[in-house]
Amino acid sequence: MTVIQFAPLTSQINPTFWHKLTQLKIDVLRLSDAQVPITATYTEGRLIKDREGGRDIALAGSVVLDESSFDDAPQGVGKGKGRMKGVLKNFNTIEEFKSCDKAAMLNEVADKTWSSITSDSEPELAPFLLLTYADLKKYKYFYWFAFPAFLTKPAWEVSGTIQPLSQSPELSSTLSSVNPDDIPQFFHVNGSKLEPISTFKPTQETPTFGFIDPSPTPENPGWPVRNLLTHLLAKHHITRAQIVSWRGTPESSSLFTATVPEQTSLAPSPRPAAAGWERNPQGKLGPRMADLGSMMDPVRLSLQATALNLKLMRWRVLPGLDLEKIAAQKCLLLGAGTLGCYVARALVAYNTEKITLVDSSRVSFSNPARQPLFTFEDCVGDNGQGKWKAACAAERLKEVWKGVDAQGVNMSIPMPGHPVPKAEEEKAKKALADLTELVKAHDVIFLLMDSRESRWLPTVLGGLYNKIVLNAALGFDTFLVMRHGPRATAHAEHVAKTGKETKRLGCYYCNDIVAPGDSLTDRTLDQMCTVTRPGLAPIASASAVEMLMSLLMHPDGIHAPAPPTNAFSQTSTHNLSADDGAGILGLVPHQLRGFLANFRNMGITGEAFDRCTGCSEKILTQFASDPVGTLLNACNDTKYLEKVTGLDKLYEEGKAALEAMEAEAVDMSDEDDF
């Protein structure tokens, strides 16, 4: 008799497994190194004929893992496959992966397997352990498999010879009559039937068992049969059994009798030693490495790498950061100049997937140095005229990050104080209709234009549809970033629903006592160009985007209250509370005014004005009832907006109040004389 030499298992990991592990590590496990249950399948071994030489070539069945290995309810394995249950242990650092007590981890799995083998009616006979470390920046995955199997002393031997299953007509007929998909991974042959090994009851006869064999060579049965033999000896005290190594057909399969001396026994405790570490490609006991960086789709690689930096924030610093909500925001950027370029880049850094840019100008030679989405080639594009800014900026964003859906719209926005001739009315109406649809289709509106009056129409539309509106404006060494408050009716509903008595925040025009007018005519060159310190635009743009993120992460969203003045003195989010109006990202200021001369920022709060030309209910109601008429009147009549909102009466009311105060002062003076 010869000692049975079992063929070890070899692993084969599909790249989809690593993609799934990457997602699991970033989104779920994060810093946890807890064990994760996974599954694998192995295929039956095969012998194929070499077409040229006619010799047999052995193809061993591999242990295969893919993305489905993480499924809670795995699908059926299919014809000629066996299922394995295992655990994954992913380490946070390569040092932990190298220095961990691998023997202890193997023994932990072996202990559970031994308990199953000696006590369960349906034991787990094909366990495995997978240790991994994922370098998610370089997409290199270090891993080491163990397939624990128990060592029997003395060892199992083959009694007689190993013969083809086809030489046993009765067994061949039994297995051939079974649907290949229904052949169990481990089975007991009971007469003319295949039954689960759990139904086996010992008799005086030599029993017959079988398994799906991943080994292609009859002389070396596959690794899974080791634990089957251990189970038979430990639970049923069987020292002699006939074994079918099934490989798809009776001709490819083999039959042998395994035996150990009759006095051999396996006590429940202590359990026998276990072995099973997989060797690396060099034939040594050691880990393997999968390098997916070179084989991954560059676009997919870019998307995952960009998301990685954001998702790492959720591991330790900010677990509650809702990146999915941020990514889902549809952002409309009105203005694709200096502010628009920097805001767009910051939004892309947050993986915001939908960005639409609106502008009416072309790229000029002065732009690329200050506007990072443009190059010199864009200045000379379109036959030397320069490319349209909005479309060009959108294309550049797609080059920066493939995950963005960026669109550019060439549009001139009608402005109050800029008359619309009869010949241009249809053009103005179309611009109004197009801008209205854009505002309705987006969640966030950024006002990033050069002039004050160009922000009026988007302000009205943003208020009408209760959108998040953010403003950014530059001076020479100062900037303003502000968020508009909700519509008055929406604010009232929020107060009634929550019981939080808060003041409605104002818009860009709430501090004005006159309607916006023409600020572009009759300007000198230094007034026509953006004369500002170059570092100011990135600061203002970043502040606007971060204000949006703080607003999105606040539980009240657009209704987030402005913080009290003393809250701005706190230097850490740990010192802020809901009483300060803080969300998980900290305060959500109403206005942020920056002064580069002394490197100081001030948080300012301004309440909504009931006669505001941009957000008051009077103007919104009028606009909703007659949008075209309201727009044309605002453009052609500089006093129209003041009349609609009552600003024209403000001066008269103020004058009357002043006269009343003076009269009262005179009366008091007369009384003193008396």
Describe the secondary structure blueprint for this structure.
Blueprint: E1 2-3, E2 10-13, H1 15-29, E3 36-43, E4 46-49, E5 56-59, E6 62-65, E7 81-91, H2 94-99, H3 102-119, E8 127-135, E9 140-150, E10 157-164, H4 169-176, E11 186-190, E12 193-195, E13 208-212, H5 224-236, E14 240-246, E15 254-259, E16 274-277, E17 288-291, H6 298-312, H7 323-328, E18 330-334, H8 338-349, E19 354-359, H9 376-379, H10 389-400, E20 405-410, H11 425-441, E21 444-447, H12 456-464, E22 468-474, E23 478-483, H13 488-498, H14 525-528, H15 536-552, E24 591-595, E25 600-604, H16 617-625, H17 627-636, H18 640-645, H19 647-673
Parallel strand pairs: 2-6, 7-8, 13-14, 18-19, 18-21, 19-20, 21-22
Antiparallel strand pairs: 1-10, 3-6, 3-7, 4-5, 8-9, 9-16, 9-17, 10-15, 11-12, 11-13, 14-15, 22-23, 23-24, 24-25
Helix pairs in contact: 8-15, 11-12, 11-17, 12-16, 16-17
